[in-house]
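Q: I'm writing up a methods section and want to include an example of the input and output format. Could you take the sequence below and give the corresponding predicted structure tokens, formatted cleanly so I can copy it straight into the document?
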Amino acid sequence: MTTFLDGAVADPERFSAVFDAHYEEIRSYIGRRLDLDVAEDLAAETFLIAFRQRDGFDAAKGGIRPWLYGVATKLIGRHRRAELRRYRALARSGPPADEDSHDQRVVDRVAARVTVRQLSAALAGLSRGERDVVLLVAYGELTYDEVAAALGIAYGTVASRLSRARTKLRDALGVEV
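A: Here is the clean output for your methods example:
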């Protein structure tokens, strides 16, 4: 399915519409995977790379959204050591303090620390490919087809990586995922 924005990818004058439509979503995805401090820079780099590679965009392979997630995920891959360090640190210490917290949220934050530690440790235990698939589905809310397009892998590979990752996460967390 092609959209109005598919045509904007190839047109340098209209590419800003692609940026406007998807920047916040991509920045948020990167921020969840790495750190908010680098999310802004990597999101901007994602769109710079996409702009430079716009001639290679093929709407028949999955559309703009998975294409941008694929570019972002490749950039994240370059920073995967930082991502693993972040998950390991969160597993040890829990999430960073919430600057906007209120007294009534203290109990929720304590419970969240335990959950974030466990989840971070479990995510750090996944392979890069498994982690990419899980986080594209969870954070990006991409379909299996979109994940396949974003990562340039087969639909079956997405399904098998997600299945393996779910088993590992279920074992690590002791819950159904």
